[in-house]
Amino acid sequence: MKFWLWKSFASATATLLAAGTLAGCITGCAKTDGSAISAGLTEKAPSTDAILTDVLDTEPKRNVSRPKAYLDESGYLYPDGALTDYTVEELILLGKICAYPSMSVPESIENGYFPEEMVCLRTTEVSVSAGHSKSGFWVIPSTSEHAEAAMKFLNLMYADVSVANLIQWGIRGRHYEVADEENGLIAWTGGAPSGYYNPLGLYGDRSRQYEMCSLEAKRQKEVYEREAVRRESAAEGFVYSSAKFSGELDEIQKAITKYVPILESGSVDLEKYYPEFLEALQRAGMDRVVADKQRQLDAWLGR
Question: Does the reported pTM lie above 0.90?
């Protein structure tokens, strides 16, 4: 993975914009649905005191939007970023933008998809998030007629890595070839998916499965993970039970869905609409949710 400094990025994109090559260089939060409830730990990592706050009402969060307002005024933001129906990938391929916000995880850089090599402009420290679940979860419905059999299969999938590899990658020799057995690296048979392709990755123990990448990419990922673990939150493993505040969370979600896209895309006046956003969160019950989550976290930590 390559990294750019902001100064270099700004200089390059200013040149492209002046030449009329791009409609904008960055897409903001196009098609954002605000799905994450940010009533969690502060953005200071690692958190050792495990004191909760509303991260939307903090100076670091405000500072996320301030540069975007500057970028919008400078013409760096794609003007239709908050309203467009195009995906980020489509805008890149159409030549409308040349950058987009993303995680800095090495495999999130889709160099094989785009016509030009993508580089990462890291703006935050790497850490393990405790604000929401990391991924999906396997569940067995209470109405299942074969719950025991389902549980046996889940156990098998995690115990026998060949089962997980079969579901994830298909049949060895037909759908993929092992390129490096020692390091667990594979490649598509014929160089591209043919006859079987599973875009999901929720099968078995991921740490033991084959990976579809180069050895260099795997090494970059390992370095990234070690760096993130060093900043692991004190709340890692804590799960908030929100049943008593489902109504408040629904209202908070509505406020986030309404305001986050227009704020983070630079579409509106930050000084006017950010306070309005915070007021909407307070009316929705953000303080009560944070206090309840803090109470549960304290109990979980045994204090």
Answer: no
